[in-house]
Amino acid sequence: MFKKILNKAVKTHNLNIEEIMFLLKVEEKNFKVLCSMANRVRQEYLGNNVHMRGIIEFSNYCSRSCKYCGLRKENKEPERYRIEPDEIINLGIYAGKIGYKTIVLQSGEDNYEADKIEYITKKLKKEADVAVTLSLGERDFAEYKLWKKAGADRYLLKHEIADKDKYNNLHPGMSYEERIKRLRWLKELGYQTGSGNIIGLPEQNEETIAQDIELFKDLDLEMIGIGPLIAHGRTPLKNVENGSVKMTLKTMAITRLLLPQAFLPSTTALNSLDSRGRQKGLQAGANVIMPNITPPEYRSLYEIYPGKRPPEGKIKNEYIETKTMIESLGRKVASGYGHIKKD
Ligand code: SAH
Q1: Which terminus of the chain has fewer CB atoms gathered within 10 Å of its CB, N or C?
Q2: Could you tell me if the CB of 106 is within 6 A of ligand 1?
Q3: CATH number where 220 lies
């Protein structure tokens, strides 16, 4: 049965929900076969390249109440910060000089002024020779359009869990329809669009994860972020068990088989739970790494989940260390922007 489903996935890149659920349950030997098959498919479609995207967490202000996230507005502990445009631009230019070909700008749902984002995007595109990815949460169509016109290449907005009631329960005041609507807008505007889920949310099971994977296909996403939940002590989910590294890897591997050309990061969250998490992800279908290039003084304040910061925060050292890790797997750091081309 396992062999039959795996072959079907490799040949057709299509599985029904029961077949995906079957693969999500595999253990031991078949788990390893699943990951190595995903690794092979990644090699065949995307080659040896690993794309390094430098992420700047430019504001931790947030107006939302996501039950798992340490940035939620009810958490009064972290001092809130907002990095000004020129500091972000200078950082991006510096990262570009080090070798980063993509700068990712991420924040809480801060309502950071749209024209400032436009200005930052334009400047980075002009002065830094980088692709620009935005990840600012839910905004208006007109704002997404403005930033696209300014030169933004990609947008990340994770759907988190593909179940309307469970989504709405985990995100008070938000709605699943609004989230999905925005993902469709982003596609329509021509962004390379990324979404993704969290593994280990309460009430999640193999069926909801299979629905997540079906949604990735349905939206025809260019980028897919799959990461484990890490319980944050100052959120309503503080007592929930962390997500499983193994389930995260299985989800990544199946996603790779079904969307062979998508760009998949091996997430920082995976590495927080397993010291070889990034390597394991890269060998289970991933082809992207997103090192943090936020200035050290802000890093401890951008606590989506606990314990995610390397203590030192020297951007150049982290670039070199990550490159060494990538090369130790027989892979290489991609030299292009890593735009997602589909045929
Ligand atoms: N405000 C932006 C960025 C959110 S932070 C937005 O809404 O898109 C980026 C991602 O971190 C989220 O999409 C979520 O998937 C992840 N995240 C948040 N809290 C987490 C936690 N405790 N454990 C693991 N991942 C988490």
Answers
A1: C
A2: yes
A3: 3.20.20.70
